[in-house]
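Much of what follows relies on a compact textual record of a protein's fold. A record is reproduced here so that you can trace the correspondence yourselves:

. . .
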Amino acid sequence: QYQFVESGGDLVQPGGSLRLSCTASKFFVEHYSIGWFRQAPGKERAGVSCISSGTKEEKYADSVKDRFSVSIDNAKNTVYLQMNNLTPEDTGVYYCAARTSCSGAFISSWGQGTPVTVSA
């Protein structure tokens, strides 16, 4: 079963930064589009960013543009999400998923996610 292990979540103050990682097992991230998603308390899971290694495509939700940056390290089979200038609205559990394209079918199952809490 295709799945990721997410890590890097923490409690951070508003305005702070975090870098999240998601490492794939049993498949290679360079072959797919990898999306970051977050589930805020009491809300449905929503897309935050997506990267496609082959096409060099990067996508961001409007709420995180100019603050978040996604990158991929094919040698480590890992995708990163650099999050800067965090706000309380960024609080949630962050997940990765592999897709056939950034808007295509999901091919991985959800992992445990990594929790991010932005609070003073």
